[in-house]
Structure formats: C-alpha cells, structure tokens
Fold:
Amino acid sequence: MGKRKQYTQALFINSGTIITDWEKFQTLVDNYPHSGLIAHLVWHPNERLCIDDQCWFMNIQTFEPNDFLATHVSQPLPLRSEKNLHDDYTPLWVKPSADQTIEYPVTNFGQGLVARQLLNNCSVVNWNNAARDLKFFLYHNTLDLTRFHDYKDIAENQLWVFNNEPITVVKKTSLVSPASGLSWMLNIVDTSTEQIQLIDISRIQIKFAKELWTTWNGDNYGEFVWNFIDVNSLRHYELDNPKLTPLEKLKLKGRTKFIEYVDTTFNNAVNNEFKYQWQLAKQTKTVKFCNDNLIDWVINNDVNMYDHIWCSNILDYKWTLLHTTVEQYRKFQEKIK
Structure:
C-alpha cells in the first residue's frame, strides 16, 4: 500500500515501543547512515541472523510484500561487524559477502527483509546508542513515567493562548471543558450557557483561566497574556500557529509585536460585542476551576448535571496516553455517552 501511495520510506513500530522525543528521533533518522534498512539486528552465536520487530526503518520502494511473508530464502552469506552494541549478538552492521550464497528456511522475523537487502548488495545497520537513548521497549513491564519527566513538566505547566482545533459554541446550558485557549471563553459569553466547569492538567492553564475570569475586563487580551507570561516567568506557551516562520517567532519575543499579534488573532475570533458580553457573563454566570485529568474527573464525578462535555483533543494527547489505561478509557466513554 505504501508503494502504491508513492511513499518511499516507512518507520515500523510494534506495540510496546516508546519514543521519548519524536522530534529528536526524526532528526536522528533523517541523518542516519544507512543503505535502506535500519533495525534491531539480532545474531546469536550458532543461530541465524534476524530482526527484533520492536522497531525498524526501511526504504519501502526496494522491498516487496513477499519479503515479509517469505518461508525460505536464498541470499549472499552475511558478514558481520567485529564489534557489538552490547553482549555478543548485536552487530553494528551486516553486509553481503561477494562470493558465497546460503539457503535456509525462515524461522524468525525479518529474515526475508534481510535477505532482500543482501540480495540488493546493501548492508543492514543496527540502531545505535543515540537512537536507543530516545526509545525503549516495554518487555511486559509497567510504564516508567519518570522517563517522561521533562515532557510531563511541560504539559503540566503549559499555557495555551489559543486553541489548536476549531472552536464550536455548543449552545448548552451547563458545560465541562478543558481550560485551554478561547473555546471556554466563547462558550461562556453565549446566551445559552449558564455555567462551565473547567478541568485541565496544566496548573498554569487553570491559573490563567481563573485570573481571566476574576480580574480581566474583556479588553486588550494580548496585554493580559503578555503580563501573565512575564509575571509567572513562563517558558512554555503556545500561540498555535504552525505557519509562523522562525523570524516571525523571534519577533514575537518582543512585547509590542507579541501584543499586536495576540490582539489581532483574538479580535478575529470574537465578535464586536465580546467585551460587553464578557462583563455581563461575569456578573450572571458561573465558572469553576479544577486542576485535574479530565478522564479521571469524569469517571469520579456525577456528570449527569452537565449538558455537554467537550474533550478537545485530550484523548489523543500524549500526556493522556501515558496516564490512562484501556479500562479508564472505556469507563470515560461510557459516562460521556
């Protein structure tokens, strides 16, 4: 299928493989010295060369579907590096010999792929230690969240100035929502909505929303955001515009440009009556704040009193995937139905 869609490369990851930093891993793969196949090479003494299927990368245009399904292979005799990454069965690379051919029945994963690579007169390289530092495999072990300390710290102290998905005003009386961006703000000023319960894993996001609700008059959003970032010495905040160039991002480090950009984006998202609607809502409506995981909160609370629960994209959020079991997902889905 990948070849039919004109893809040229593919990264295969088996269940249980965790990539701790995708951007660094992608950069590493982009610059990795290889001839079309990178894999966890396994070659125990007195056994056949094979691949551990937890993670491998390949130029898919040089392989065929039957290479995955092969039951018997004929290939050049593989030659291996003298050194191993660890122990005595993880060669740095294997390459085809020039004058010897072997045949054998396939007994382990990847032997068909290796055979194809050697027949193409190409080497196979192992994942080096730099790659292994960016990923690990759960050998039936419990996920160790300490590996994700830096990511968790960012996620739990992140400020989302705007939303990274379309905003919908749901026109319901009572809502549950994350505190990110403008979505809850546009819903609370709508005449249909009377109360919102905000739930967010980011303590900074909850603090920001609470200060907006209790101290902001609905005008000069850019200045309010700038002052909040400055007072709280925030390093992690998102304006959610992937089209910004590096130069534009650099300019937004300055107060004037930042405020102008945020105000322009904000004003394009709200109507001309927002300030009046915001001030009226503060006098007549209720917003509650909770620094918690939305999935846990829904499971542990009576949600029948709410007309709508907006999940944003948290079900696909890396933090949620790290902290939520399949059973918790099931209970959550049952309750929001």
Summary: Residues 183 and 283 are 19 Å apart (CA to CA). The mean pLDDT is 90. The first strand starts at residue 9 and ends at 13.
